[in-house]
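Quick illustration, no need to memorize.
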Amino acid sequence: MKNNQELQEDVQNAIKWEPLLHAAEIGVTAKDGVVTLTGNVDSYAKKIEAENATKKVIGVRALVEKIEVKFPNFWSKTNVEIANEVLTALNSNWSVPKDKVTVIVEDGWVTLEGELPWNYQKDAAKNAINFLMGVKGVTNNIKIKSENHDSIERKDVENAIARSWSVDDSDLKVEVSGSTVTLTGTVDSWYQKEEAGRIAWNTPGIWHVKNELEVDYYYSLVD
């Protein structure tokens, strides 16, 4: 099992391995599987990349992210300029339905609102603007309102997750209440938790997914 120093070093090396981040000054601390990231980066994309790199490290159970996005003065843009570029990016993305997403920009922070029928469209809207210069952060408040009104069967969700080679569902439980799916239990990586949630979101008729899975790498070693 990794101690705090070993986990800290693994996360530091994972971040440095990413091309976008090899020169970034990101501080890493680790305690009992909880990793905290600090520092400044010059793009929101780098902030996301640091988060994703950390989540992939074995032994990370939770992430506290305190990275700030700070641009050089000559990169700064007005809120109006950012809003126009966000709208252009959304309109250019075939996965995002036209005129369904509202954009709010305040001090470089973008908030997305509206209703879409599928979660992959919500994710696509956020991903479309992650690399835009001037964006300091994104709050994705888009709500999912499925156009499919068929009842959700728990077994269908369980079978979909079981078909994935990347998710160990031996201690994963699925609960269905109306249009809400709740996932509980334990998986041995953050990737498995997010993948199980992604698969659940693909269920026709879904409006909400409560992903309450716990991440414990050592669970699989002692089970």
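The chain has three domains: 4-69, 73-144, 154-222.
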